[in-house]
Every structure is written in C-alpha cells, then in structure tokens.
Write a structure and sequence with these properties.
This protein has 140 residues and is of the alpha+beta class. It is 24% helix and 30% strand. The strands form 3 sheets. Strands 1-2-7 form a 3-stranded mixed sheet, with helices on one face. Strands 3-6 form a two-stranded antiparallel ribbon. Strands 4-5 form a two-stranded antiparallel ribbon. α1 (2-16) crosses α2. The longest helix is centred in the last third of the chain and has 18 residues, at 95-112.
Length: 140
C-alpha cells in the first residue's frame, strides 16, 4: 500500500513540475545538502477495522471422504478494511513557486482520471472537455 501511495504522490509531483528524485521519505533533520524544493512523505500507522461484510456466496463441487461429489456452500467475506494515512510536506524557498505548485499538485490526480462511459460526475466529458458542475446546463 505504501508503494502505491508513493507512486501516486510521485506522479502528481512530476505532473506539477517537480523532478521525481525530489520526492523522498521524511528525514529526521533538515539538511542543507538535501535539495529544495522537495516533497517528504511520512506514513502514519495503518488503521485496521474489522468489517465482516459479505462479498459473495457460491457453491463448489467437492469430493467427500467416501469419493462422492457434494455441493459445498462457500461464503466470501471481507475481514478488514485498511486505512493508510500519509503526511506530505512540500518544502521550498520561494513562496510564489510553492503556491503554484500546491494548486498544480492537488489538481494533478483528478486531471489524469478518465471518465468511463456511463459514469456520472465531473471530469473529462465525451467531447474531451470538462463537464459542468452538477445542476448547471451545458451550453450548446
């Protein structure tokens, strides 16, 4: 999960204009030799929540001890949900660059997302444009 989160954060940072090598794990002390601007990623402890939600029920053929085939009911359940909290610190010397980068960094993941046919919500529309916010009509 941490690998996936690091990959998504790195892709968003690169899309916002920061080199991939400037995305690093959190360092204990700030050091003058570490280049700025940079992103430091800190993973907080995972939170496990027991759910027990039913995912599916199926029947399978199994051979019994006497060699006879029988149907067995199989229930698949989700046991846990895992939440991974991440702190991302953006360190830069230039406040103007930091403000521009922050907006671009937050917007980067949603700009990559593709809207599937029949999917509702905002995002790239069928004409390649952006759908209007909910409740507004599209001009023709």
């Amino acid at each position: 999960m941490q690998t996936f989160a690091t990959k998504v954060i790195t892709q968003a940072a690169v899309a916002a204009g920061l080199p991939a090598e400037n995305v690093i794990a959190l360092v204990k002390k700030d050091n003058l030799t570490i280049k700025r601007p940079r992103i430091e990623i800190q993973f907080l402890p995972e939170k496990l929540t027991r759910t027990g939600r039913k995912l599916g029920v199926s029947r399978e053929k199994v051979k019994g001890p006497d060699g006879e085939e029988k149907l067995r009911l199989v229930r698949k359940r989700e046991l846990y949900v895992v939440e991974q909290a991440v702190n991302v610190n953006v360190l830069a010397e230039d406040p103007a660059w930091l403000e521009r980068f922050s907006y671009a960094f937050v917007a980067a993941p949603s700009a990559r997302r593709q809207r599937q046919p029949g999917q509702l919500g905002e995002g790239p529309g069928p004409e390649g444009g952006v759908l209007p916010p909910t409740g507004q009509a599209r001009g023709g």
